[in-house]
Amino acid sequence: MKVQVGIIGGGPSGLLLAQLLNLQGVETLVLEKHSREHVLSRIRAGVLEHGFAELMREVQCGDRMDKEGEIHDGFFIAHDGICNRIDLKGLTGGNSVIVYGQTELTRDLYEGLDRMDGNVVHNAKDVQPHDIESSQPYLTWREGDKAKRVDCDYIIGADGFHGVSRKSIPKEKLREFERVYPFGWLGVLSQTKPVSSELIYAKHERGFALCSLRSQVLSRYYIQVPLSDTIEDWSDEAFWSELKKRLPSDVSQSLTTGPSLEKSIASLRSFVAEPMRYGNLFLAGDAAHIVPPTGARGLNSAASDIYYLYHAMVDHYQKSDDSGLMNYSETALARIWKAQRFSWWMTTLLHRFPDNIPYDDRLQRTDLEYLLSSKLAQASLAENYVGLPF
Questions:
Q1: Maximum pairwise Cα distance, the chain
Q2: Is 231 a domain residue?
Q3: Tens digits of per-residue pLDDT, 10-32?
Q4: Of 390, 384, 389, 295, which Cα lies nearest the Cα of 91?
Q5: Which of 178, 221, 227, 252 has its C-alpha lying 20 to 30 A from 267's C-alpha?
């Protein structure tokens, strides 16, 4: 079996690249270790920058996003009992974001591949890249008791932080940068009316909180918790009580509570692996970089990788131009590090750090005061939040 591009990982990154390349006549095969049902059961954030939304339209999978997605022209920063609005549209000359669940986005991409008879293998176990330094790399995996192999021109590792792709690069050839934050996010999904039509990021002495939404009848809320906490430590009643304490009184009074449909605790980290290409293996998305979710850059950073890979592959196959492939790592990392900076800044601005000394706390407060007093500072925030140009 032979394809031009083998893709490890059937999440949004892998599916988006496969669909983009298929539309240009480049043959792909996606290998996903889980079932399609499992992939579509994963609940993830879904704040899409305008560039990502344009990619979904280009890949002919944006109709439902445009119909059902929530266009947000701004968001709120809550502090000291009040809310200040960041006018994304006004500060960026008309750009905004779309709130659209990652699960729904993934479903749209699957359906797009189905329409094109795209090649996706689910339950592919023990996927392994081979000969990635050669001009004839290949992938092996198991389907049940059967060993399978596909030869490729290129291999894309879009299999997440714990996937096999990055681990296939010799350690001496890879440099990793990481920061682990001393807290996590406890998230609750509830079938309740959102407390706000736009996101609310709350800074409070008890810890950070976020009011988000999936639709007008599905809400997603988060609170900062110690890394030592477990889900069992937090009943629904305890979660709602703590969330209300971290919000301005007028917001907490209008909060509709209900049973949690899903509850989880996620640790926060910043991570980058360099380079993002080794031989004919290219890393994309969480396989190469992780950001804390505060700035909504994770999924969007993955999309920027796919944008660069897509254009590089098309230039290679249609124009015999390899400059995009040769420069992929440098080009992608330039944007990734800007997303890292923004996510780190948003996280340090809004969270309570347990080891802060009084000096740190005063600087943090001053940073927020400056942001809310300066249109230029808000414009910088807005520019990064809606997405820097590809």
A1: 64
A2: no
A3: 999 999 999 999 999 999 999 99
A4: 384
A5: 252
DSSP classification of residue 194: -
Look at residue 290 and tell me if it is in a domain. Answer: yes
Ramachandran sector of residue 205 (left: φ over 0; alpha: ψ -120 to 50; beta: rest): alpha
Contact, 293 vs 266, CB < 8 A? yes
Q: Which domain holds residue 163?
A: 5-73+96-177+269-354
CA dihedral sign of residues 334, 339, 342, 343: negative
Which is it for strands 74-79 and 82-87: parallel, antiparallel or unpaired? antiparallel
- The beta strand positions in 49-205, using DSSP E, are 70-72, 74-79, 82-87, 97-99, 120-121, 125-130, 138-143, 146-151, 154-157, 175-190, 200-202
The rounded distance, in Å, linking the Cα atoms of 113 and 132 is 26
Please state the domain count of the chain.
Answer: 1
Domain assignment present for 219: no
pTM beyond 0.85, yes or no: yes
CA–CA dist 382, 376 (Å, integer): 10
Residue 91: band (very low, low, confident or very high) from pLDDT cuts 50, 70, 90: very high
If one counts every other C-beta atom within 10 angstroms of the C-beta of residue 329, the result is 20
Instruction: Indicate the pLDDT class of residue 219, thresholds 50, 70 and 90.
Output: very high
Sheet bearing 154-157, strands edge to edge: 120-121, 28-31, 5-8, 154-157, 281-283, 277-278
Neighbouring C-beta atoms of residue 373, cutoff 10 Å: 10
Look at residue 43 in the predicted model and tell me its pLDDT. Answer: 67
Q: Per this entry, what is the length of the chain? A: 390
Report the DSSP beta bridge partners of residue 146. Answer: 143
Percentage with pLDDT > 70 across the chain: 99
Query: Read out DSSP for 88-113?
Result: HHHHHTS--EEE--HHHHHHHHHHHH
CATH number at residue 325: 3.50.50.60
For the cut 80, the answer to whether the pLDDT of residue 246 exceeds it is yes
Closest CA to 61 of 49, 72, 52, 50: 52
Residue 226: strand, helix, or coil:
coil
**Is residue 63 one of the residues assigned to a domain?**
yes
Q: What is the pLDDT of residues 362-378, one digit of tens each?
A: 999 999 999 999 999 99
147, β-bridge pairs? 142
